[in-house]
Design goal:
The complex is a heterodimer of chains A (336) and B (292). Chain A has 336 residues and is an alpha/beta fold. Helices cover 45% and strands 18% of the residues of chain A. Chain B has 292 residues and is mainly alpha-helical. The chains are: A alpha/beta (336), B mainly alpha (292). The interface between A and B is large, with 57 and 57 residues. Chain B: It comes from Fictibacillus aquaticus.
């Protein structure tokens, strides 16, 4: 007890103790200051500019597939209009619509058209909207460059390869004359829009075979498919574009003969059923009342095609007149 | 009569030594496994990320052009969120711990709270994100702001801080409190001048480790509405924002190789921040540890 009291005395009044405590507080205060000064010090960085450009902020969210287009549009638009804030979120198509129908967003990006339930919600939330098409995304079915027996696949053959029910065990089960060897299947993870899309248009919403190797990381898929000449997989057209040297895209026969995915066949709709349009949904109210949203949308329709088709994004632009038509539609909503 | 059956001992010796070295081997393998994974990770990130790592990478905003892309908005966004999370979680967490350890009666109700706090520490982070979305973003109408994100993160790490602080408070020797009371100090004086300073190193260590976890979280902030492309830094607590892990996640999900390299560079920056924070924790622990 006496010993403890002695320690205690030191604690209560000892100079060393006070110094230690002070330095802790000092440290804490300094750390805080550092954080705040770092956070506050740079706010005026992008406020320069001015002129006759519009100002304001735009709320954009939705599909991660559409994201690269909108990121590019935002970047270019803000370079011209430094007073506009146009950040882009990636809540996913469904997550974006969920916010959009509550009136929390100006633009909702989507890799599929709006669903009926979502339309009903939008009506309830009194959100009038207009659908705009930005570009096409093609889904590519790929095999290794070493694979020499696959020249094309029909939708039925795709079903045989990818479906859990009645799955083909070997390539010979898919088409006669193909090697009697096991099929290695690689596919994007179930959370991805790409999986949903494939599941819907090819598998008719039935489950994919259980021994398929799923990965959210498309690089894993690329490596898996390049690793074996008996492997097959699918992912977005942009991914195929970026890995063209390692992979072979399989021409798909959707009923009118085999078609290979190229910018041309995707744009013309020939590459069916594995190409899909990418959308953004604009709130009519925002377009009418917020000059920044109108200008942004206009800029998007004028530039989305070129940006989407660039190397770093890799989608396919719509035909020129489609954008023109949509620009007219935009002016109509805005009353200009 | 011999106390030790030498024959039996000798016979078993070989097996015992073998068992011993097997166990040792397993533990070394376990340690090496973690080390090798870490080494591979560091090597991959280092070799991929060095190319884009530069001052411009830190001070530029995100861009669709890999060579112009940077992490400024994400970095500053992370600091802003932490500036909200750190004080809120520290004050609430330590307050709760002091109440539970020093004031609360040891009854069924306290035990109930205790169990719940421990359970909360194991709840998946996305659940906290949904909570933040309902309460902060929609109910309190904070929108998709730094404040909403920071408060959600504070909730996420609160249980960890409470548990760590309680642990730290419990290690303060009983003699000290008794002696303090013996000298006529009130309970509040004792807590403020004796118990809290003595427990502070432990509390700070726990807090910093919890904050390190918060810095790496993506899921809850995505739900709350942190954005992925932001070309401005937050101006105040109600600004929209993005954070480092979201920017990194976004880059890794792009098909082009260059963006993966950018992500690796971002990971290096994130690792450096975490390393600094953990070093501070270690420093504090060493400096104030052996006081009793």
């Amino acid at each position: 007890m006496a010993a403890a009291a002695a320690v205690l005395k030191q604690k209560l009044g000892g100079p060393r103790q006070m110094k230690n405590m002070k330095s802790v507080y000092l440290l804490a205060v300094m750390a805080m200051l550092l954080v705040f000064s770092a956070a506050c010090g740079n706010k005026s960085e992008n406020g320069a500019g001015g002129g006759k450009e519009v100002s304001g902020s735009i709320k954009i969210d939705g599909s991660s597939t559409v994201f690269p287009i909108m990121e590019a549009v935002s970047e270019e638009f803000q370079a011209q209009n430094p007073d506009v804030k146009a950040p882009v979120g990636v809540s996913g198509t469904g997550g974006g619509f969920e916010k959009f129908v509550r009136g929390e967003l100006d633009l909702a990006n989507a890799s599929r058209p709006i669903k009926d339930e979502e339309k009903a919600e939008a009506k309830k939330g009194k959100v009038d909207y207009t659908e705009f098409q930005l570009a096409y995304d093609g889904l590519s079915v790929v095999v290794s460059k070493e694979n020499d027996f696959i020249d094309h696949l029909t939708v039925d053959e795709l079903k045989k390869i990818f479906l859990e029910d009645g799955a083909a065990k070997t390539w010979a089960d898919v088409r006669e004359g193909w090697p009697k060897e096991k099929i290695d299947v690689f596919a994007p993870g179930t959370d991805s829009g790409t999986y949903d899309y494939f599941d819907e248009v090819i598998l008719e919403e039935k489950p994919m075979r259980r021994d398929a190797q799923l990965s959210e990381d498309d690089n894993v898929l690329v490596q898996g498919v390049t690793g074996s000449d008996k492997a097959i997989g699918f992912f977005g057209y942009a991914y195929y574009q970026a890995n063209k040297d390692k992979l072979k895209a399989v021409p798909i026969d959707g009923g009118k003969g085999p078609v290979e995915p190229t910018a041309k066949t995707i744009e013309s709709g020939e590459y069916a059923p594995l190409s899909r349009p990418l959308f953004t949904y604009a709130s009519n109210k925002a377009v009418k009342e917020n000059e920044a949203v109108y200008e942004y949308m206009k800029f998007t329709l004028e530039n989305a095609g070129e940006l989407a088709a660039s190397d770093t994004i890799g989608y396919v632009a719509l035909p020129e007149e489609e954008y023109k038509k949509q620009l007219d539609k935009l002016d109509e909503i805005a009353g200009k | 009569m011999a106390l030790i059956k030498k024959e039996t001992v000798r016979k078993r010796m070989g097996r015992r030594i073998a068992a011993n070295s097997t166990a040792k081997g397993i533990f070394i393998a376990a340690t090496m496994f973690a080390l090798v994974v870490l080494a591979v990770l560091l090597y991959r990130i280092g070799s991929e990320g060095m190319e884009y790592l530069s001052l411009e990478f830190i001070t530029n905003f995100a861009s669709r052009m890999p060579e112009r892309a940077g992490i400024w908005a994400a970095l500053i966004g992370t600091l802003w969120v932490m500036a909200v999370t750190a004080p809120v979680s520290f004050i609430l967490g330590v307050g709760t711990a002091i109440y539970l350890e020093e004031y609360a009666k040891k009854n069924a109700f306290t035990r109930f709270i205790q169990i719940n706090i421990s359970n909360l520490a194991g709840v998946p982070s996305i659940v906290f994100g949904l909570l933040g979305l309902t309460i902060f973003v929609r109910l309190l109408e904070l929108q998709r702001s730094v404040l909403a994100g920071g408060l959600t993160m504070a909730l996420l790490i609160l249980p960890v801080i409470v548990v760590a602080s309680q642990e730290a408070l419990r290690t303060v020797p009983r003699d000290l409190r008794e002696a303090s009371y013996g000298m006529g100090a009130t309970k509040w004086q004792t807590i403020r001048r004796i118990v809290f300073p003595a427990a502070l190193p432990g509390i700070l260590t726990g807090t910093i480790l919890a904050l390190s976890r918060a810095i790496g979280e993506t899921a809850p902030l995505l739900v709350v509405g942190a954005l992925a492309y932001v070309a401005f830094v937050p101006e105040n607590l109600f600004s929209q924002f993005t954070v480092l892990p979201i920017q990194l996640y976004n880059w890794t999900s792009r098909p082009q190789e260059d963006f993966h390299m950018l992500a690796a560079s971002g990971i290096i920056v994130l690792l450096i921040i975490l390393l600094i924070m953990n070093s501070i924790a270690v420093y504090i622990r060493n400096k104030f540890h052996k006081r009793f």
